[in-house]
Amino acid sequence: MLRTASLFLIAWLIHRLGVRIAARFIRLNQIAPKRDRPSLERQQTLQTLIASFISVLVFSLATLFSLMQFVGVDTLLWIVGLFSAAFGLGARPQLSDILSGMGFLFEDTFSVGEKVEILDMEGVIEAVNLRTTWMRSPTGELYVIPNGEIRVVRNFSRGRFSIARLRLKIEASQLAEVLSLLETLSRDAVNFLPDLLEPWKVINESGMIGQHAELTLLAHTRFGRAADTQPRLLALVQEHLDEAGITLVD
């Protein structure tokens, strides 16, 4: 019994030191080239996952070595096999969660601090461990999501660009004039708006012709800068339409 207690005490101590041990592993990345090092958010995520893995591993080994004191190796293998089959059937969701969490060690799907959408819920990742992912919603609620249920992730923090949209309603008789003005202005707008990545595109979403025409400007901006760029884009277009004597339709 004393040896068993010692094994679980050692396992508990390693479990308590799991975060520090994981941090040591993460520091090994410092010897890699700077461009190959994971981001700080990724390092924090890996640290939590590795600490969880260490805890599961040491307690499993402590249990295994404790059983070896009372039964032979052949009997132990038979017991472990039987237990694994029964545990696999009864705890399939939990095993799925843990295996998915282990997959996060190698897949850089999301990291702590990133804004994502999981299971039609949006929020910021607060913590990731082997079984669950903790996500804070914009309204403050905390979602605890089993890793096994995470199939599709929409990561808002890793986009290459954001899109600013501007809708214009004009007289159909002025369509050709407005299109020409917008085409010319789009080439110059890149110099006026530093967050604009390229000349915008002008489309007609409805595809209808009548007394009025509705145009939509699709502008690619630097990632996360669409909201700031949109009012400046509106002011720029409005100024040039006024100079050309073109009035928008309400």
As a percent range, the share of strand residues is 15-25%
Q: List segments where confidence is low: pLDDT < 50 over at least 5 consecutive residues.
A: none
Mind summarizing the main beta sheet? 5 strands, antiparallel
Number of helices: 7
Which strand order do you get reading across the main beta sheet? 4-3-2-1-5
N-to-C span: 84 Å
Average per-residue pLDDT, rounded, comes to 82
Envelope shape: elongated
Instruction: Give the CATH level 1 class of the largest domain.
Output: Mainly Alpha
What is the β-strand count? Answer: 8
Q: Helicity, in percent? A: 40-55%
- Give the topology string: H per helix, E per strand: HHHHHEEEEEEHEEH
CATH architecture of the largest domain: Orthogonal Bundle
CATH topology of the largest domain: Helix Hairpins
Total count of domains = 3
How would you classify the helix and strand content by structural class? alpha+beta
Integer-rounded radius of gyration? 29 Å
